Every structure is written in C-alpha cells, then in structure tokens.
C-alpha cells in the first residue's frame, strides 16, 4: 500500500517504520496540500483532480540521498514484484472440522448439510461464509450449499443420496423401530413420528439413534416417560428428549390450558360482538 508521496506504509510489528511513513505524509503536505491551500474547490472530484495533477511532480523529483526519483525506484524495484489482484474480493470465512453422520449430513450451526454418501463417517472441513457453506475432503471441495438458518432442518442434494437409499452398516428405519419397541411403546411412537416427519427417513437417523441411546444412562422407565412428554408437547428431536430427562420434566405432567377465556372483564367484548 502506498501513500501520496510514494512512501511505503508501516510493516506490521515494525514500529520504527512509523517515522518513514510520517515523512511521506510531510512531503505530501509540503508539495501538494500547501500548494492547494489558497484554492477553493466545490466538489471532491475537483479536489482529487487537482491532487492528481501535482502527484507526477512529487514522484518524479530526484531525492538527494538516493539519487533517483520515487517513480524510478518504483519501476525498478516494486513493479517487477507486483502480482495481479485476485479475481474476486476477499471474503471472510470460518473453518470448522466436522464428522459425517449416519444420514450423510454434517451439522453446522444447528443445520444439516448433505455430502456424498461415500464419505459416511469421514472427517471433513467446512468453510463457512455469510452466504455459502463449502465442504472439503482431503483438500477437494465435495459439496457446496447456500447457507441456511439454524433451524435443525436438512439441506439435501439429490446427487449425494445413495441409490434407493442404500442402508449403511445395517441401519434401516425398520431396525430403528425394532430397537425402540424393545424399550417401550412411547419410545417406538416417538421414533416412528420422527421418521415419518422427514422427507427422507435417513434424515431422522441421527435423532433416533441418539434417543435410543439415552436408555443406557437414564433407564427404560425414564426414557419412556420422557418420550411420552415429548409426544405430548410436539418435541420431535433428540435435544428435546435429552433436555426433558436432564431437567426431570418427565416426572411432571405438562400443564393443560385452562378452559374458557383467559381473562374475564366487562370491557372484553367477546366473539359475539362481531356477529
């Protein structure tokens, strides 16, 4: 980056460069700003044009200590080392390491993005920008998606899906239902609802496997009660069932809404007023 005087800006972590940068500012003040001090300008474009006319004289002046002008030094030293600008502007991105789940999706900020099913259980890197999510494996981009909000939903590319939804490692919706039925009817009902709610059953594998796995730390009775509570409040996710168990909500019945109007007052007209 260059200033008006042709001096290089300060290098990072080099405080001694500041003096040279200040000298560059001083030269601009003496050779350009001072000469324009008594002129009146009525637009920024007019001022820039006047500065542009005076720049060649400053850059072409031969310095006593170097014996060359700033323009000559730029042509000899800087221009040969310049490289072309990038084809697109710099875009800030975050990188996250993710493991592909059983449903060939990776979770990124509470949303699930598909990758080719051949990468099942592989560890990948995700590049996240304001608008896109790019996923890489061994340095090669394998998926690209428009970034979505953290709504716990799935963004799936048809080409990433296995032929006829081939089952991986013997895991199928029927197998998940069978494991849930071994725990109890409430767990089986919740698993069935989750699988039916998804466009593709595989998208519910992650939640179903997690829910079935909660039987080990919490026990069959507690999980059955938690699944019943989840069904009653319409919470069809692993995180909801886990939260119910952690907060002992499965031990309490959900509050039922009171019948009749919530507020009784003479100023409330009621539905009959409009008929």
The description of the largest β-sheet is: 4 strands, antiparallel
* Low confidence ranges: 1-7
Radius of gyration: 34 Å
Q: Label the overall shape.
A: elongated
User: Helix share of residues?
Assistant: 25-40%
Structural class: alpha+beta
Reading side by side through the largest sheet, how are the strands ordered?
A: 1-4-5-6
> Beta-strand percentage?
5-15%
Q: Average pLDDT, to the nearest integer? A: 84
Q: Please trace the helix and strand order, writing H or E for each element.
A: HHHEEEEEEEHHHHHH
| H/I helix tally | 9
According to DSSP, the number of beta strands is: 7
What does this protein structure show overall?
This protein has 275 residues and is an alpha+beta fold. The chain is built from nine helices and seven strands.
Show the helix and strand layout:
Elements: H1 17-33, H2 44-59, H3 70-78, E1 94-99, E2 105-107, E3 112-114, E4 123-128, E5 132-137, E6 140-146, E7 154-155, H4 173-183, H5 185-197, H6 205-213, H7 215-218, H8 220-233, H9 238-246
Parallel strand pairs: 3-7
Antiparallel strand pairs: 1-4, 2-3, 4-5, 5-6
Helix pairs in contact: 1-2, 4-5, 4-6, 5-6, 5-8, 6-9, 8-9
